[in-house]
Amino acid sequence: MILSVGAVLGGLLAAGAAHAFPAYSAAHLNIRSGPGSQYPVLAQTRYNQMVTVNGCLKDISWCDVVYQGVRGWAAGQYLDYDAADGSIVLLSQAAGKVDIPLVTYTAVDLVTAGEIIAYAPVPAAPLVVTVSPAVHAFVATEIVPPVHLTGEVVIGAVLPATVPLYAVPQSAYQFAHVNGQRVLVEDNSRKVVYVYP
Prior knowledge:
Blueprint: E1 10-13, E2 21-25, E3 30-32, E4 41-44, E5 50-56, E6 62-67, E7 70-75, E8 79-82, E9 88-90, E10 104-107, E11 118-119, H1 133-141, E12 157-158, E13 166-167, E14 174-178, E15 181-185, E16 192-195
Antiparallel strand pairs: 1-10, 2-5, 2-8, 3-4, 5-6, 6-7, 8-9, 11-12, 13-14, 14-15, 15-16
């Protein structure tokens, strides 16, 4: 389950900007410095915000994107494509509807895949959770061991049963520390409802 945290430096070979196209975030989505959840977060989108896709890895797991002037990597499973026929599909399912330029990335160290974070699509009206200052303060200062998983931690993600959840006083939610981020989680469904910036 633990990821071997590789060096942030790596090689990127991207297609030219002439082949870039717009896509939209299907969740609150991290833009990272490399194609993996072990890389630092450079920016974060909100739900349904446009990013420019320069290209993707062959399996569409990660895409080289630009968001509000910040260039980085976004998880392909959370990018929607607005096809010419009016349909909206996940980029990973858009084969034949868009010509996705391929990019490569060579990390210095090997990253060992761990458990994968599942994802339940965010409804048209994204879940909005109000967090009290007391809950914010508790979660921000409570020290718990971090867990590293394959995949992004976004609102709507479902954490595997192996991820420990911790009680939060005065809250209906529990919290976890996953991939360097603290999140509030529904107890029964284990669905992420809030991601701390």
